[in-house]
Design brief:
Layout lengths: L22 E2 L1 H11 L1 H22 L6 E9 L3 E2 L6 E2 L3 E15 L3 H67 L5 H36 L3 H5 L2 E2 L16 H11 L1 H22 L4 E13 L3 E17 L5 E13 L2 H7 L2 E9 L7 H68 L4 H36 L6
Parallel strand pairs: 1-6
Antiparallel strand pairs: 2-5, 3-4, 5-7, 7-10, 8-9
Helix pairs in contact: 1-3, 2-3, 3-4, 3-7, 3-10, 4-10, 6-9, 7-9, 9-10
């Protein structure tokens, strides 16, 4: 199963394509992170290995074919295999052969090997998708951190700008003697705190930006101009979550690549048990060989015989000499090609092998395979539990963030009204700078809570979409 490519979408975070200022959308960040991530690359290499194993399993149904050749010399007394004569001097020999063997029956072992290899390829595919999902989750988290911190910076800068305006107004009132100087000092202290908040938030943004550039493995030149495309606030407004937890867990288990990988690993381990069982069965194989060779002892005569003077070898009882003919021949070693033709031979054999006792190695292998099967089942159960906990946590986080957002929204509205009333009173001289500072601090805290709740909600929602394999759209 191919997991849906999650970074095609995110209308949430759809923005312009890379510009000269290196403004990146979430989709572009996800594409780059997946491209550079070493865990994804390692999973892809594992998938390539599984593919080669499947290729080998398919070829395993065919007979093998091997060729060999030798070139050697013999010294001392030995029987020459091609002339069947004793050789006492150095003799050159060459041997050539083709051999093929074919397993006719091994308990259907090769069929089980192929099935296991097919499952391993599918599991490797899911492992690649699971690695990509992990990377996407990290990218979304870093992206949300940057958006949340950026919005917080904007809110604190607006507060600081308003405080500067109030300081200018208060200075005029202090100079006119309508307000005590302590109110001006309180506002200046408030501005210093707000400027400190701006710097603190900017540092947090720089940290989040650094983490993102590291995740994307940007070059120093790319990192220097890196920025993200921010969505409109209307695109990230939370809505009441109404998902059913049981149904969502079932959808996640049906589509999440990590769980699919664990299931396929269990099936692969089951095939391994069947493979070890085939080692306990008899096997039948066929073997065929074509061979030939050359011998330096293969001598042939050439030309007519050479008749010399007879050689006396004795005499008879009557005193007559006895002679033996003296006939010699010219000889030479038989031609190399002729010997290969003459010495060509064929053989074929069938071998039935029955395992009787192999130091219990076969039964030990079968027991180990059953243990590995149980280990795979445990890992699958653990993966299921982890996904269920993740779904439950994400749903709880989404619901909590939504309730927090509603409460923070009410608080922001109330604090904005309170601040406006306090500013009006301050300008009329019926409120102190401390009252104004307190109202602004309350508003700033409520705005920070609202921003945090908005992006916590969004992060939980996107996590659930990723878990279900859904396109990340709002």
């Amino acid at each position: 199963m191919r997991y849906p490519t999650p970074f095609l979408c995110l209308a949430l975070l759809a923005g312009p394509s890379l510009t000269a200022q290196s403004t990146w959308t979430l989709q572009q960040c996800a594409d780059r992170a997946v491209e550079k991530n070493l865990a994804v690359r390692a999973a892809e290499l594992d998938r390539d290995i599984a593919g080669q194993d499947l290729r080998a399993a398919n070829f395993g149904f065919l007979p093998d074919l091997n060729a060999a050749a030798t070139h050697g010399y013999n010294w001392g007394q030995a029987i020459d295999r091609y002339t069947n004569t004793f050789a006492t001097d150095r003799t050159r020999t060459n041997n050539f052969w083709l051999n093929s063997s074919w397993d006719l029956f091994r308990g259907l072992r090769q069929h089980q090997v192929k099935k296991r290899s097919e499952l391993d390829v599918q599991a490797a595919d899911e492992a690649v998708e699971a690695a990509r999902v992990d990377v996407l989750t990290q990218v979304v988290a870093r992206f949300m951190d940057m958006l949340s911190t950026r919005e917080t910076i904007r809110a604190t800068e607006q507060q600081a700008a308003r405080t500067r305006e109030q300081i200018t107004f208060t200075e005029a009132l202090v100079e006119a003697g309508r307000l005590p100087r302590v109110d001006l000092l309180d506002l200046q202290a408030q501005l210093a705190r707000e400027e400190l908040d701006v710097v603190t938030n900017e540092n947090q943004y720089d940290r989040a930006r650094l983490q993102m550039t590291q995740l994307l493995q940007l070059t120093p030149q790319e990192a220097a101009t890196f920025d993200i495309a921010a969505p409109t606030l209307a695109a990230v407004q939370p809505s009441d979550p109404d998902a059913d937890m049981v149904a969502m867990v079932e959808r996640v288990l049906a589509t999440h690549p990590a769980y699919q990988n664990a299931q396929l690993q269990v099936e692969s381990a089951e095939r391994s048990i069947e493979i070890t069982r085939t080692q306990l069965l008899p096997s039948l194989s066929f073997n065929a060989t074509v061979a030939t060779g050359y011998s330096g002892r293969d001598i042939v005569t050439v030309g007519d015989p050479i008749i010399g003077e007879p050689t006396q070898i004795g005499f008879t009882e009557g005193g007559e000499n006895v002679y033996t003919p003296n006939i010699q021949y010219e000889t030479e070693t038989r031609d190399f090609g002729d010997q290969l033709d003459r010495n060509l031979n064929y053989s074929a054999s069938w071998t039935l092998s029955v395992p009787l006792f192999n130091q219990m190695s076969n039964r030990t292998a079968a027991a180990q395979a059953r243990i590995r099967y149980e280990q795979a089942r445990v890992r699958m159960s653990d993966q299921r539990i982890q996904l269920e906990l993740t779904v439950q946590q994400a749903l709880n986080d989404q619901r909590a963030a939504y309730r927090q957002y509603l409460a923070a929204e009410r608080a922001v509205n109330a604090q904005q009204a309170s601040l406006a009333f306090t500013e009006e009173r301050f300008e009329q001289g019926t409120a102190t700078a401390l009252d104004l500072t307190t109202a602004k601090a309350n508003l700033q805290r409520s705005q920070a809570d609202q921003i945090g709740a908005r992006y916590n909600y969004l992060m939980a929602k996107k996590s659930l979409d990723i878990l279900q394999g859904l396109p990340l759209e709002l």
